[in-house]
Amino acid sequence: MIPFSIEEFLSVFEQYNLSVWPMQVFLYLLAVIALILVFIQKDQTDKVINSILAFFWLWMGIVYHLFNFSSINKAAYLFGVLFIVQGGLFAYVGFFRSEKLKYQFTLDFTTILGMLFILYALVIYPILAHSLGHIYPVTPTFGLPCPTTIFTFGILLFSIQRIPWYILLIPFLWSFIGFSAAMHLTIKEDFGLAIAGVLGTVALLFFKPRQNRLVSNFSAS
């Protein structure tokens, strides 16, 4: 059972949105920058993309879960720690891991799926939320866990190598936690979270390695 009502849940969105404004605009711009950098492919673009993802997850863990969501749900302290860990993992694979995460646009199944997830997170999600009566500030804006997790899966689908399982674990778990809450609270715009979690994880674990082998074989020939 969820220990809060839909009214309490929406009031947290309102409290968050009013307290951090205009940070929502900055977070949205960072997302657009990350997407643009996927197409630019300069020496440092991958580090910037991973830094943006790390910042998103640290922001959600600290500002949303610990400072806001915890007012109605004590489990938010655990969620906050997990999101902070995820932010640290993105920093680790972006700067300290020998084989760093790199991103590239190639017209294939995974990148098309990634573009669809990003389109949903940045464009369709807010439009759908508004049409369902979740009017700002009582709405989950970008930078909150559900749309930002969908965006994260979208960016990861542009990776040119297999994503380590530990990078996917927390976003995958959150896709089901968030979807479960959305089902109980009828936050219908969050239903896409479960789709992103399942399809994104399957594509990254099973399709991405296969595509990499095909690209390697093509390059060798």
Structural class: mainly alpha
Shape: globular
The overall average pLDDT, rounded, is 91
Total strands: the figure is 0
Task: List the helices and strands in order.
Answer: HHHHHHHH
The gyration radius over C-alpha positions equals 17 Å
- The count of domains is 1
Helix content: over 70%
- Alpha-carbon distance between the termini? 57 Å
Largest sheet: none
Number of helices, counting only DSSP H or I runs of 4 residues or more = 8
Residue stretches low in confidence (pLDDT < 50, at least 5 long) are 213-221
Q: What amount of the residues lies in strands?
A: under 5%
Q: What are the main properties of this structure?
A:
single chain, globular, disordered C terminus, 221 residues, 8 helices, mainly alpha
Overview in brief:
The protein is an all-alpha fold and 221 residues long. The chain has one domain.
Report on this structure.
This protein has 221 residues and is mainly α. It has one domain. Helices cover 73% and strands 0% of the residues. It contains 8 helices and no strands. The protein is globular and about 45 Å long.
Topology:
Blueprint: H1 6-20, H2 23-40, H3 45-66, H4 76-96, H5 109-131, H6 145-156, H7 165-185, H8 191-220
